[in-house]
Design goal:
This protein is α/β, with parallel strands linked by helices and 354 residues long. It folds into two domains: 2-241, P-loop containing nucleotide triphosphate hydrolases (Rossmann fold); 244-353, 2-Layer Sandwich (Heat Shock Protein 90), CATH 3.30.565.10. Helix content is 34%, strand content 28%. It has helices at 45-52, 77-83, 99-109, 115-128, 144-156, 177-189, 201-207, 225-230, 235-241, 258-271, 278-292, 330-333; strands at residues 2-12, 18-29, 34-38, 60-65, 68-69, 84-87, 162-166, 193-197, 210-215, 218-223, 244-251, 299-306, 311-319, 338-343, 347-353. The strands form three sheets. Strands 6-7-8-3-9-10 form a six-stranded mixed β-sheet, with helices on both faces. The chain has a five-stranded antiparallel β-sheet with strand order 11-12-13-15-14, covered by helices on one side. It is globular and about 75 Å long.
Length: 354
């Protein structure tokens, strides 16, 4: 469906300096593929996506869509954009239009559909994204997750062959991420061709047929989710995919903001789709901090999440401590899966795997 050959993008500043953002990108994208594009910030992921529908025109190379070079002089770009839709992180809804009017606008204006037909299709798409009751409200009355679902419905109204998603959940509150990802999973099951720039690693693994790992302006590695996450060929890929997300708290005395810590941990659980562990996290912290390890201060507490292994844990570490203060682990094992007690170079750590 799409063939990218030797694609380059270089920005030139007025002072004569230049910055190469995309460097000799080559790939083939077939019908029905779901490709997640991952990698560190600043490696060209969003630029590559925007280059594919010429929102940010490349400075070299070719993009063939159904065999035609869309970079060729005179190519009808507007027709290509009807077939390659895009969903942005910032929604871009028209605030002065209702939800249904936002979805109807392009089919009426560009496809010359009647308003009755466009509204009927808009309502059908709103059912698809679970927002039938929001047809006649304005975007200002929607949550971030609802706005993004409307943006997806608006994109689908043009009957695209490909949808490009540019970090569609990055602007959302953690509680709203799941509802948008659920709609995207449904589209994948229906066979929609999608390219998705995302930082949601578990989602990328679950939904994708292929993964592009971008690094320093290149597609550094291209493979199946199993290959990229379990057996990457490149060290940079391995380092990126094996990263651990964490929040760290230093409890130094009775004046420590425990409520703030619990609130941050709750948001952490929601963000990383482990909300079911939220109550156990707080119960384990109270048991460890106020009972088992109440005599030990200062103490470092960490909540960790390994995205690919889908494993959450709590660490409690006291510097200079030579042995575990836990004793019987029965009370802890009632709330967690495993208790790991281990000396470190700094002291002693108790790790609770949820």
């Amino acid at each position: 469906m799409i063939s990218v050959r030797h694609l380059n993008k270089t920005y030139h500043d007025p002072d004569g300096t230049s910055l190469a953002v995309l460097k000799d990108i080559n790939c083939e994208i077939g019908p029905g593929e779901v490709i997640s594009i991952i990698g560190p910030s600043g490696t060209g992921k969003s630029t590559f996506l925007r280059a594919l529908n010429l929102l940010d025109p490349p400075t070299g190379g070719e993009i063939l869509f159904h065999g035609e070079n869309i970079l060729a002089k005179g190519y009808p770009v507007h027709k290509m954009r009807q077939k390659i839709g895009m969903v942005f992180q910032s929604f871009n809804l028209f605030d002065h239009m209702t939800v249904a009017e936002n979805i109807m606008y392009a089919p009426v204006k560009i496809l010359h559909e009647s308003k009755d037909q466009a509204r009927e299709e808009a309502l059908s798409l709103l059912r698809k994204v679970g927002l039938t009751d929001k047809a006649d409200v304005y975007p200002s009355n929607l949550s971030g997750g609802q706005k993004q679902r409307v943006a997806i419905a608006r994109c689908l109204a043009m009957k695209p062959e490909v949808i490009l998603f540019d970090e569609p959940t990055s602007a959302l509150d953690p509680t709203m991420v799941g509802e948008v990802l659920s709609v995207m999973k449904q589209l994948a099951r229906e066979g929609m061709t999608m390219l998705i720039v995302t930082h949601e690693m578990k989602f990328a693994r679950d939904i994708s047929t292929r993964i592009f790992f971008m690094y320093d302006g290149y597609i550094h590695e291209d493979g199946t989710p199993a290959q990229i996450f379990d057996n990457p060929r490149r060290s940079a890929t391995r380092e990126f995919t094996q990263r651990i997300r964490r929040e760290v708290f230093e409890i130094d005395g009775p004046g420590f903001d425990f409520q703030g810590m619990y609130s941050t941990m709750a948001q952490f659980c929601i963000k990383h789709d482990i909300a079911t562990a939220r109550e156990r996290v707080e119960s384990l912290c109270e048991l460890m901090i106020n009972d088992i390890m109440s005599a030990y201060r200062p103490m470092t507490v960490r909540i960790n999440y390994k995205e690919i292994a889908d494993e959450a844990s709590l660490d409690f570490m006291v510097e200079g401590l030579e042995k575990s203060p836990v004793g019987s682990t029965d009370r802890l094992l009632a709330l967690c899966r495993e208790v790991v007690e281990e000396p470190t170079s700094r002291g002693f750590r108790i790790k609770l795997i949820l």
